[in-house]
Specification:
The chain has 329 residues and is mainly alpha-helical. Helices cover 77% and strands 0% of the residues. The protein starts with a helix and ends with a helix. This is Cation:proton antiporter.
Amino acid sequence: MEITINVILLALLTLTALSLAFTKDLFASVMLMGVYSLLSASFFVLMDAVDVAFTEAAVGAGISTILMLTVLAMAGRFENRALHHPRIALFVVIGTGIMLVFGTFDMPAFGDVNAPVQTHVAPHYIQQSGAEIDIPNIVTSVLASYRGFDTFGEVVVVFTAVIGVLALLEMKSEEVQNSVAPAPMYQHKILRIVGKILIPPIMLFALYVQFHGEYGPGGGFQAGVIFSAAIILHAILFGVETTAKAISLPFVKVLAALGVLIYGSVGIVAMLNGGRFLEYNALVENDITGQHVGIIVIELGVGITVATAMMVIFLTFARRVGKTNGENA
């Protein structure tokens, strides 16, 4: 049965990819990419990579789709023929595909127990994380503790993306006052009522995912995306300006930096206590307690940065859409 499901999912992925290659409608392309992300998330679930599936569904099919649709509102639904060079794109894709296939020749067989990934650090994580970290979810142990420095770099990358978007699209105060970002779904009363019902549970679920990542799928990245999705849903249903009255955009920008500072501060405190950067064992006398405290705090920083980053990026794009529509009118 599992093989049958894998074959069906692979066929759907292939069909979706081919449809993406031949469609000329950018809106259809965005929808197909969302479908591709959901199919990929299903694949990850079958591979028991639930945390990765969670992230793929939330980021790939959720936030990314919304952001690309917002960009389409500014750029238009169809490609500019003068700037479209399909042969160059086809050459790049084929060349990249050939190199990827060539690279697989030196890879061990899928599932090989003697593969480096199975004999290097994975046995230590699986066998020793219970005693060293004392967290049921090994994925959280790896991401937040064993490779915490790498995860810190990812959070910094997210914050850097916010800085880049603001540098490119941030409007002056007078432009913000003159722009009226649209509320595409405001005229649909049923959607607004359903949105009011769903937004609080979505936020509550985000908090559950945030603080339950040690025991099940979840953590700061997934929780941050889910929480920001609730805010973005509010902006779509009731308008950006209405949402801005509930959350201050300047304050949200400060929170984006604060999340990174919270994460980095844990490493600084560990160093001040005689340990190495992000060595949670140095936070308190008991090593296990130090691991738990460190992971909870850094996951909180991740959640804050990711949530606020998604909000800032969307609201910045949405306000730019409002300004563009105003100029066109």
